[in-house]
Amino acid sequence: MTNPLHKELAHLLGDRFTISDYERQQHGQDESALPPMLPDAVCFALTTEEVATIVKLCAQHQTPVIPFGAGSSLEGHVFAPHGGITIDLSRMDKILRVSADDLDCTVQAGVTRQQLDQHLRQQGMFFPVDPGADATFGGMASTRASGTTAVRYGTMSDNVLALTVVLPNGQTIQTGTRARKSSAGYDLTHLFIGSEGTLGIITEVTLKLQGIPEAISAAVVGFADLDTAVKAVTEIRQSGIPVARIEFLDDVMVQAINQFANLNLPEQPTLFFEFHGSNNTVQESAKLAAEITHAWSGSDFQWATDIGERNALWKARHNAYFAGLAFRPGSRSLTTDVCVPISQLADCIIQTKADIDASGLTAPIVGHVGDGNFHLLLLVDPNKPDDLTKAAQLSERLVKRALTMGGTITGEHGVGLGKMKYMKAQHGEEALAVMHAIKQALDPQNLMNPGKMLPPLE
Amino acid sequence: MTNPLHKELAHLLGDRFTISDYERQQHGQDESALPPMLPDAVCFALTTEEVATIVKLCAQHQTPVIPFGAGSSLEGHVFAPHGGITIDLSRMDKILRVSADDLDCTVQAGVTRQQLDQHLRQQGMFFPVDPGADATFGGMASTRASGTTAVRYGTMSDNVLALTVVLPNGQTIQTGTRARKSSAGYDLTHLFIGSEGTLGIITEVTLKLQGIPEAISAAVVGFADLDTAVKAVTEIRQSGIPVARIEFLDDVMVQAINQFANLNLPEQPTLFFEFHGSNNTVQESAKLAAEITHAWSGSDFQWATDIGERNALWKARHNAYFAGLAFRPGSRSLTTDVCVPISQLADCIIQTKADIDASGLTAPIVGHVGDGNFHLLLLVDPNKPDDLTKAAQLSERLVKRALTMGGTITGEHGVGLGKMKYMKAQHGEEALAVMHAIKQALDPQNLMNPGKMLPPLE
């Protein structure tokens, strides 16, 4: 080992520092279809103090630092286009504190959402944000993740009270307190949420929790076409019915999950509903929602009343990504997401489906329609370069369509490497310059996850 | 008029530019007890473009710029400690767009919450955030305001989708889209929310709206002591009962509003509840909440079922500030707020009441207890300098108590001039340095509302 930084890190971390090809490979890829880009070395940190020391050493040696959680990102967030040191936080997996009185908890960045969920369920609480993968909280905060319950409980942006962050200079800060709200100064918590490791490394996360509702019920409704499905969703939202989840699956996605999860749902545009509350509220909400979907010619509510049936349904929904992959065995997925105002959602999906049909690709659609957010799983054959080109072009047209409709280039996946090229179209040159000014102010050496999110200024 | 900047502004704005003593006086004070600090001149802007031109001219002349909405701030936010130009945005009062399908709207910064409310009610919608004053949306966004419904609907931090902001260099940016969520880059919307005009001037605000619930009911419950009142609130929160408002008034505040609003509530620690939802949900929620308060020895729910009675009750609550002032005729109020984790709230209020009693001052307490946030109206006789000293000391002890308990120096009033001295104690030197770095990056000449929020680095 001749690299002086590597020597110092090996001295600090022992066998938790490695330059093995295997670990570099594991840490230079994610769930995207982008070609891997490997770091020079990987550190497994156990504490905030260790992360701070690693970051300080990297700053001294002007070496890039890339944080890594579960590796489940979809836009190359964890890649190392400029080499450098990956800090794997997955061993920082301690649940540090849970308060039932305050409905909050603090976890290390490497705790995963399913790990926390198991811990909290015993105490009658849960954390609502549920991206498809069993992501870490550091990663979920860094990408401003959300999931199926955002329509009721919000995204990571709404559910984090405070962060512990190691800054590019190696100093450690707390971005907030355990108070539910504060008007004391710039909102550093929200600045670091969604900053994708480009301003510092999140090492601890303080989360808002929810009490487990007395009753939960789920239902499935099929529609003859997409437009009426979305109109039903719009009316349900306006009526103020407290829906915990409203998920849309197109006919192709229903086929895929039928095959994958051994279900036999009618293969048509479909809404999955979930209601949380007291027994009475849940019954009433479901009744009102059923009336509205019925008025829009939806099928009768198919109920999943017992917990086993309900879990099977939602597990199938959560496994949509894998169901999509299995739908075309041997394929990879170029997975993309956009979010538009709800009034534009039906048009956006209809135009996108026409575009998919014209391309000859298979691309199941699944969406958090209560938020106007949907995903395309563009299935590509790795042996057909033409597939990837077509998929990339289709994805680009989707992003532009979303922008034209007043939406955003990504609702919950983040920018990473994959969507950097659209940042100017979304934000404009002046707002992008503000982001650059912030980056430059906090990370003047450009060492924190460099080459991601912010395209160079022209 | 010899000042060259004043000449240019007068040329631009005609009689919407003034150096009159009257307007300078009106714009150099707010609802705080701090002594006024006047700007050199006042501009009344009508459009974002005008604000941008004024800011550019001020930048060329290295002259401070202070945004002004309703003047209802409580910590000297609108004061001009370094002179300069105040931009009054109150005439930017256009509601630009309302979408019932998307439940959102865009307003100019000078629109007030009551103005928007009147407009929306006709269309079956409302905007929930309700600070005591009839503040402007520019001001509410700038101070990260909240109010009585935050426990259900969140604060300005949770209810703004996007902002139009004039930057210190005179460029105009959009900080977001109308999509409900986005993972595309740094969260500039949340950076400007709560930035108190120190990073730029908010000229337009895009807000999330709510459908007016089918049913609303309100109730009042008295408690023998504060501790049991807060324990009841904690249990109600844990049980997940959807309460729209839970307000706490101490015995002194109940006396004050009884006198002011001609009510005859029992003069003891009191909770005001409001429930929003369907008829059934509201009834059920109220029943469950009543069971819990009863178990904690609260009085029977006193119902305000009809709209007139309910409005009278909540108007009395909203007028708490004026009721407090009227309680000691001729007094001014040093109004302060803190927010602590709910588990600490009872202790914090009990210790604070003991401190008030020891000081000999009168200080009604009112709180958004569902959030752990409460206000002290420290009533001082302007002719007794000793009163103001005592009040300032009491306020300082309260802030320190909140910090010790893991809370924040201000839950919703903001920092302004009044709480600048506590910023380091809350955030620590390193986090404060991050805020300074952002300020320096965006406003290198320090012209945007200078001398506020951020204390000089040591």
Question: What's a concise summary of this model?
Answer:
By secondary structure, the first copy, chain A, is an alpha+beta fold.
Give descriptors for this structure.
458 residues; alpha+beta; Uridine Diphospho-n-acetylenolpyruvylglucosamine Reductase, domain 3; Alpha-Beta Plaits; five-stranded antiparallel β-sheet; 39% helix
Q: In terms of topology, how is this protein built?
A:
2 copies of one chain form a homodimer.
Chain A: H1 4-13, E1 17-18, H2 21-27, E2 41-44, H3 48-60, E3 65-68, E4 85-88, E5 95-99, E6 104-108, H4 113-121, E7 125-126, H5 137-142, H6 150-153, H7 156-159, E8 160-166, E9 172-174, H8 188-192, E10 201-208, E11 210-211, E12 215-222, H9 226-238, E13 243-249, H10 251-261, E14 270-277, H11 279-295, E15 302-304, H12 307-318, H13 320-327, E16 332-339, H14 342-359, E17 365-368, E18 373-380, H15 385-404, H16 423-442
Parallel strand pairs in A: 2-4, 3-4
Antiparallel strand pairs in A: 1-2, 5-6, 6-10, 7-11, 8-9, 8-10, 12-14, 12-15, 13-14, 13-17, 16-18, 17-18
